[in-house]
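Progress against Task 2.4 (sequence-to-structure conversion) is shown through the following example record, which the project officer requested during the mid-term review.
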Amino acid sequence: MIVIGRASLRPVISLYPDAQFVAPRSVSPIRHRIDARVRVPPSKSVANRELVLSAIAEGRSEVHLGDIDPGDDVRAMREALRALGYQVDARSPASVRISGDGARDGEVSLDAREAGTVARFVTALAALRPGRTTIDGSARMRERPIGALAQALRALGTRVEGDRFPIAVSGPLRGGAVEVPGHESSQFASALLLVGPRMPEGLELHIPGSVVSAPFLDLTVAALEARGVRVERPTANAFRIAAQRVRARSVTVPGDATQASYPAAAAAILGGRVSIENVERQRRGGQGDVRFMDVLREMGCTVSTLFGGITVRREGTLTGIRQNVRDISDTFPSLAVVAACAEGRSEILGIGHTRRQESDRVAAVVNGLRSLGGSVTEYADGLAIDPVPLHGGVVDAAGDHRIAMAFSVLGLFVPGVAIEGAGSVSKTWPGFYDMVRGLGH
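Structure tokens generated for the chain above:
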């Protein structure tokens, strides 16, 4: 059981020395068991798939996002579609209307910012148009992998200049048979699948070896099929899509299962219960990160479903776990902070690929826990956490929204925690700290 030591704020060296200085954000601890109901933002993974499919559909689609700000990634996708010439009407923040098949000719430049879904999906989408499209992103995005997708697009008839951002894509995309690896990201395959119906020769896609975050491929296929696209899948890693029309539709984006991991982790760490009202536990064709709730159950929590939502409760002991989270790796920072508050050693495996996301997430989690006195052993593909007394300190989020949110949850339990780079939460949950404050009421 964790014994909380005296709070002690320590200076930290930022990984982003050129960034404008903003004081670390202190987290106010909660000193009682919690009983809260929360709603999370709409799933950016679902929203950005639906926005791309709306752009290539016949007719006008409407993507309903609800009343919670979805964050920078969804805004970046809307702006990218506008830059490509699609008619995007977002006068209401709760919904987006898109008139499909309206890409403009000529040269276009667009900025994916920090959004991996935008960078990868729009690269494939831009290949459908005959003009030249330059795609760039943040400094970190320029370090993230895109070469495998670029090579696949070349094999399918597109001219691609460069294998790192910024890259330039000149269509049109012909189609055919291609392989794309899945060990770096499932987004390469999803990007090709999303535009597969619009390739004149169709798409025959094979993914050799294993796939990280594989449930996101199921999510992509489900989104295509909901728009009338026939997807043949002879094996788990093989797909065939003939050239065909994509139907316009009106779709309501569900709450984000990855974001649900933060209030769920708070219930596990603090004890008591949290009900997340707008996330369902549907697994097949849904959001794979709901499996995080099953991991919490193995650690000693009770997980139950309500109409359209999930309730997580902990009354007894929280125990350590050995878990491979290759399929739900976006939730691993949340699992790490829960493990730091459990009894017994925990091992979290299958996360080597997260070293090339918004930050080196393995290193960021290790550094964050050690800055609070945690005992962590780092592996190439995982880490081990041994429970020891924790104290306050400054955690560098390394510019990564998931690190900032996970360690803010830990700060509800450990007095004296402050987050450097807390503003990064705007990427996917601008109202995150309002939710955190509400947990204590």
